[in-house]
Amino acid sequence: MKDVVDLEKARLEKMAQRGYRNWVSQLGEDFQLETRPSHISVEALRVLGQGKETSAFYLYDLIMNLQNLGSGFEFNELNPKDKMAVIDRYLFLLDRIRFEYMKRLGWLEDYPGEDFTLVDLIIRFEQLAPALQAKTPTLSRNHPAYSRFSKMKDLEREEFIRKLIPKALIKIQDHSTTL
């Protein structure tokens, strides 16, 4: 009996391979359809989490390839509607990448979306993002401010976590790849 080919999976694998081509060549890792934030090395998280031109390009490139919008090099040529769709996904992914780093620092226990692949987070953005964005990452019980955090309301907790991001970005530059 011949094997049944999952055409949708094959199509996504090809799109992911194209979207990750610059990640593989520049970050020196193997990224695939099943790559989750937890699979990314600290070195790659360091590059991707900065939110600057280089990291934006890698994320735009992945997003645009998966959305059939071209490569990240063509971001500035997108129409306003498509550009906003890419930016929405970019900010969403950037949060997951930064949350992953904060988890590796021991600051977070978990964060919304960590069980999804990067590809799923992009292609299922419309379905996944609203629920995931409504949830706040869980601060680690070992974090010095956990007692204060546990007494906060939901909006205060989200603000508290967001205020940790600049500190994490500083830490990401200071740490070795052993996290």
Structural features, described:
- The protein has 179 residues and is mainly alpha-helical.
- The chain has one domain (7-174).
- 61% of the residues lie in helices and 3% in strands.
- A two-stranded antiparallel sheet has the order 1-2.
- Helix 1 (7-27) runs antiparallel to helix 3 (53-66).
- The longest helix has 26 residues, at 80-105.
- The radius of gyration is 17 Å and the shape is globular.
- The N and C termini lie far apart (47 Å).
- The mean pLDDT is 92.
List the helices and strands and how they pair.
Elements: H1 7-27, H2 42-48, H3 53-66, H4 80-105, E1 108-110, H5 118-123, H6 125-133, E2 138-139, H7 146-150, H8 154-174
Antiparallel strand pairs: 1-2
Summarize this entry quickly.
This protein is mostly helical.
Number of helices: 8
Mean pLDDT: 92
Shape: globular
Low-confidence stretches: none
Q: Work out the strand percent.
A: under 5%
Number of strands: 2
Output the helix-strand order. Answer: HHHHEHHEHH
Q: What's the N-to-C terminus distance?
A: 47 Å
Strand order of the largest sheet: 1-2
- How many strands, what sense, and barrel or not for the largest sheet? 2 strands, antiparallel
Structural class by sheet pairing and helices: mainly alpha
Number of domains: 1
What is the CA-based Rg, rounded?
Answer: 17 Å
Helix fraction bin: 55-70%
